[in-house]
Amino acid sequence: MTDRLAALMPGLTVQAVGLDQDDANLLIWRCADGFVLGPAGAMCDGAEQRLAARVAGGVWLEHLWPDMPAVRVSLGDPIYPLVDLALAELARPRCGTATVMQGYIQAIIVHVLRNAIEQGTVTSGVLAGLADPRLSRVLVALHDAPAQDWNVERMAGLAGMSRSAFMARFAKVLGVPPASYLRQFRMTRARHDLSAGAKTRTVARRYGYGSTEAFSRALRATGQAA
């Protein structure tokens, strides 16, 4: 089985969890028929907010979450017991609650993203591309091997499409040409690695740059100094 999310999750951290966190970007509300999960602007009418979390890091925050629709979770859904556990832990904190909540929130995010891919609930952006049977083969390959010397012909071959059809489909779904997407992905991962303490030379090689100078120029072009 191809894991379409594995390369997008590294660096994801839960910075704060509570009932009313500033700058929260994941909220959980209780409704009459269960729960609603989503970004801050997704609250439905008549819902009672039960959890607010601020999540950061990883490619997830920059490319996946802002356009996510609200997700309804009803009794019987596989994710329902996990949400129930998270809310119970928040209501009665004990030793280790912070660590437990990290795991719960990360697992909830994976469930939400996986559901969006499997059900095709997002119509544009990375999740929409991962939901597309042809584009997903290309995206997973780019995510797994960003340092390789990718060109459009090779990507189109992976997708099983002509060059022109692939270019048009990719730009329509992802909103940018393939080369631009790959550059953005490389830079996002590179910034994460640098912030984690990796050396510039190592990161440059990891993401396909022949020299630290070329890598530094690419970082400056995206507003980040090496």
The rounded Rg comes to 19 Å
Major beta sheet, specifics? 5 strands, antiparallel
Q: How far apart are the termini?
A: 37 Å
What structural class do the secondary elements suggest? alpha+beta
By DSSP, the count of extended strands is 5
Could you say which overall geometry the principal axes of the C-alpha atoms support? Answer: globular
DSSP summary: helix tally = 10
Question: How do the SSEs run, as a string of H and E?
Answer: EEEEHEHHHHHHHHH
Unreliable residue stretches: none
Round the mean pLDDT to the nearest integer and report it: 86
Fraction of residues in helix: 40-55%
Instruction: Name the beta content range.
Output: 5-15%
Widest β-sheet, arrangement of strands: 1-4-2-3-5
Protein described:
The chain is of the alpha+beta class and 226 residues long. The protein has 10 helices and 5 strands, in the order ββββαβααααααααα. It has a 5-stranded antiparallel sheet with strand order 1-4-2-3-5. A hairpin with a 2-residue loop joins strand 2 (26-31) and strand 3 (34-38). The longest helix is centred in the middle third of the chain and has 23 residues, at 97-119. The radius of gyration is 19 Å and the shape is globular. The two termini are 37 Å apart.
